[in-house]
Amino acid sequence: MALSCATIGSAHADAGNFPNKPIKITVPWAPGGATDVIARLIGQRMSEELGQPVVVDNKPGAGGNIGTGSFTREKADGYSLLMATSSTNAINPNLYKTLPFKPVQDFAPITQVASVPNILVVAKDSPFNSVADIVAAAKAQPGNLSYGSAGNGSSQHLAGSMFLKATEVEITHVPYRGSGPAAADLIAGHLDLMLDTGSMPHVKSGSLKALAVAAAERLPSLPDVPTFEELGYPDFETAAWYGIVAPAGTPPEVQEKLNAAINHSLQDAQIKSRLEDFGAVVSGGSITAFQAFFVSEIDRFAILVKNSGARVE
């Protein structure tokens, strides 16, 4: 796969004084979720950098496909951006038979904003206090334990599938319509575990215990929780990621200006602190780096989706 080169269209004439009006970030998920929170956080800081309002427009539905598909019809002038995610732009191309957008050709990646590693969590009163405890119980009674997810093909499902393969155990997958209901059932004791990206508030409140993080390094917000690699499971890294993209054909000079504004925003100590409190790892970087990552993630998730057996027609 290769990204199509950005072409200079009618917006080129306005590129020199960009931006001179409000910028919109489409979030293909409902308000209040991780994507929405991160978009609003970075959008507010971008507004200060660029001197124009940055507004968030939520367009949820069909696993993020509705908002992502409608975004590709926006004008390629830099005033319409999308908060792309690993779910919509890397998993869905491998999960859905048909999509209302072309996974690579329709987008001009600008900057990766952050990633949120999956965390292995259990209820506060769970008898499991380590990954070893879970593995031992699962091997003693194959299929007796259960893990929840936000649905077939979700990041939690794929992380759970990775966990089963890495530990060579059988644990029953229970898909929900969103990670919120799954987390609620985990807290209530109806599930045994989750590999989740949105459980940090529950861990901080004490309603969930974090046993391991699927990241290269320990999270600053969970310094006492080991990585899977530390526990003997190398290359066990999986995370939900978030990044800003523009429509394909957005003028290169506009892309560069947006990239600089986002990177400056991510260097803000308050923004970094709030993202880390959310369980996120701040990213940033060049357009070229995000382009390469964007494509590589589609290929990487092709393997994970295939291994999980997930499919949505």
Report what the structure shows.
By secondary structure, the protein is an alpha/beta fold. The protein folds into two domains: 10-115 and 240-308, Bordetella uptake gene, domain 1 (D-Maltodextrin-Binding Protein, domain 2); 119-213, 3-Layer(aba) Sandwich (D-Maltodextrin-Binding Protein, domain 2), CATH 3.40.190.10. It has ten helices and eleven strands. The chain has helices at 34-50, 65-71, 86-95, 131-140, 155-167, 179-188, 200-205, 252-266, 269-277, 287-308, and strands at residues 23-27, 54-58, 80-85, 107-117, 119-123, 146-149, 172-175, 193-196, 208-213, 239-247, 281-282. The radius of gyration is 20 Å and the shape is globular. The model is unreliable at 1-11 (pLDDT under 50).
Which descriptors apply to this entry?
single chain; 313 residues; alpha/beta; D-Maltodextrin-Binding Protein, domain 2; 6-stranded mixed sheet; 10 helices; 11 strands; 19% strand; globular; disordered N terminus; Bug_dom1; Tripartite tricarboxylate transporter substrate binding protein; BUG
